[in-house]
């Protein structure tokens, strides 16, 4: 289902609970069968996990599926610091957060789900390597303990309309100097969020 259609159904109250449950269970089953373990974290493609018609169903399934086990952390989409980030990219980050970050934070507080502090890495997904490298420097400098930097690196595949920008991200993230950029910004990679 296209994102626009899904959002329309969510906010018009026409999203079928059984369809959501089936999609979620299928994805959890596939993940666990393929990797042989539960996920470390939960998110949704294009952040759909936080939408009002999806998040309550997700939480219900998570409570049942992982009762008595280590809880996976939930992606919290409120934007982090946006210093140096262009206005249109900042606006996109705020829009994504507005679609459900507060509800994810509420669930985390009430039920003890771990979450990241804030999210970085949102942009209009265009501009090639040079633009992505510039944005990455800003995100690294803006990062605080527990922030999550999302990225979409990939090698080109035939049917991916975003292939060029995925490759640009891949090329930037594969640079040997990335470790130096992270060190200079005081950033390190951790498996679980601090919060």
From TrEMBL:
Keywords: Carbohydrate metabolism, Hydrolase, Magnesium, Metal-binding. GO terms for biological process: carbohydrate metabolic process. Its cofactor is Mg(2+). SUPFAM superfamilies: Glycoside hydrolase/deacetylase. One of its GO terms (molecular function) is hydrolase activity. It comes from the Bacteria. InterPro entries: Glyco_hydro/deAcase_b/a-brl (IPR011330), YdjC-like (IPR006879). Pfam families: YdjC (PF04794). This is ChbG/HpnK family deacetylase.
